Amino acid sequence: MKMPLPTISYHKKEGASLITLKNIEKNFNNIKVLKNISINIEKGEFVSLIGPSGCGKSTIFNVISRLIPQDSGEIYVNGTIGYMQQKDLLLPWKTIMDNVALPLTIKGVDKKTRENKVKKYLPIIGLEGYEKNYPSQLSGGMKQRASFLRTLMASEDIMLLDEAFASLDSITKSKMQIWLLDMKSRLNNTILLITHDIDEALLLSDRIYVLSSKPTTIKKEIILDFNTANKKERILSSKTLKLKEEILKVL
Amino acid sequence: MKKSINIDKLYPILSIVTITFIWQIIVDLNNIPKYILPSPTDIFLALKSDFNLIITHTKVTLYESFVGFGFSIILAFILAIMMDSFKIIKKLFYPLLVISQTIPTIAIAPIFIIWFGFGTLPKIIMVIMACFFPIVISLVDGLEKIDNDYLRLFKTMSASKLQTFYHLKLPYAMVHLLSGIKIAATYMIMSAVVSEWLGGEKGIGVYMVRAKNAYALDKVFASILVIIIASILTIYTIDFLGNKLIRWKSEEKGV
């Protein structure tokens, strides 16, 4: 029972964490990419996975969202998942409305219901009045926000953000980070973020997993229990600097 | 912006008018007989006197072209979707498609006439043979070029194969498909005319052979003129419809 087939090991379990990974291992062409990864995410948490680029961070997301099967280990997910990749991946031939509503369209929600639902969120993400525009008419930050809303439409439970802001310029990026904090407190969902930006992880997270390069293992778990109510103040905290030094040492 | 586009369109008109004018002068000055080189005026007069006959024949040619073209699109879609869904089909047939393009039209058309007679059917088949290839290749390539990240996105949204095709693959391939369709559109009337030329009862190609055999070169040129006009109109129409289909592309430029 401890080593079930990957396809059956992915199931819901009542009363447990929202996401639980137990001793996940994954090989690609006989090269070990993930080694003994165990993670658990509680409801409402903001957790970051930080590690050098090129390590198997995205592979962890792909395993969680069942895009690829793990070789061994167990996964429990209690809820639906929305997966936002680094590129905004908006479809250039669809309007913002149709792009954002796409997950609902695929679920078979009728046009009126899905447009009402999207319209409810558009002002929150600052894209009100842009629903009829095409993605090419929007700035990078706006596209990323549209992509975020699409991810939210895919699932209001869990969001996997894979270097969601890495392609943005630094000014837009820091704006988006603050925006994401605001979003998180409004939506009260669970977010799992992949990043290689230590400052980003320290600013946003409740918890950080520090990962090693290939084969990826968890080197350290950091709990950020200060300035939780107003994370923006963390930038000025001395604790942040200490933690940054700690992470840099581990990496 | 608008003005410069209009001026750009005037340039080819200017060159055409100039060449026609020089042509007329050369023929008139040298007293070149009509059966060697008719002047633009001769061609115009021939077109005027034989207009109804030319139009009747052209209608047949256009019918063959468009039926062949339509079938090419339908067949191309079926084959391209099958090639995209089953890699084995692509491996089996893609090389055959390329080989089929090396078969000379001139050689194959008489064979089709032997098999299918002098009617419109062998012409339609020839049009399909010419048009099918660029359409199917552009569609297959378009479907293949889709970014893997997009496919992953649709997987995470647990979209079905049909939904992925409708929302992602087809619109993505549309730009490629249109360039293939445009190339096919330039081939379609020409290949119908060539196969009529090789044997038939009706069509502008048949008319041209008859005119040529009577050394009525003015009528031959008149039919060439009609073919050119018909081809240009067809390409423009397809271009226009295509741009409507990928309207988002022009919105992109508009910003």
Write up this protein.
The complex is a heterodimer of chains A (251) and B (255). Chain A is an alpha/beta fold and 251 residues long. Chain A has a domain of 67 residues. Chain A contains 9 helices and 10 strands. Chain A has a 6-stranded mixed beta sheet with strand order 6-7-8-4-9-10, sandwiched between helices. Chain A has a 4-stranded mixed beta sheet with strand order 1-5-2-3. In chain A, helix 8 packs across helix 9. By secondary structure, chain B is mainly alpha-helical. The mean pLDDT of chain B is 89. In chain B, 31% of the residues are buried. Chain B is built from 11 helices and no strands. In chain B, helix 2 packs across helix 10, helix 3 runs antiparallel to helix 4 and helix 3 runs antiparallel to helix 8. At the A-B interface, strand 6 and helix 4 of A face helix 7, helix 8 and helix 11 of B.
Task: Give a concise summary.
The complex is a heterodimer of chains A (251) and B (255). Chain A has 251 residues and is of the alpha/beta class. Chain A contains 9 helices and 10 strands.
Describe the secondary structure blueprint for this structure.
The complex is a heterodimer of chains A (251) and B (255).
Chain A lengths: L5 H4 E2 L7 E10 L2 E11 L4 E5 L6 H8 L7 E6 L3 E4 L11 H5 L1 H6 L3 H11 L18 H15 L3 E5 L7 H18 L2 E6 L2 H7 L2 E5 L6 E6 L14 H13 L1
Parallel strand pairs in A: 1-5, 4-8, 4-9, 6-7, 7-8
Antiparallel strand pairs in A: 2-3, 2-5, 9-10
Helix pairs in contact in A: 8-9
Chain B lengths: L1 H29 L9 H10 L1 H35 L1 H14 L4 H12 L4 H24 L3 H9 L4 H37 L6 H10 L3 H29 L1 H8 L1
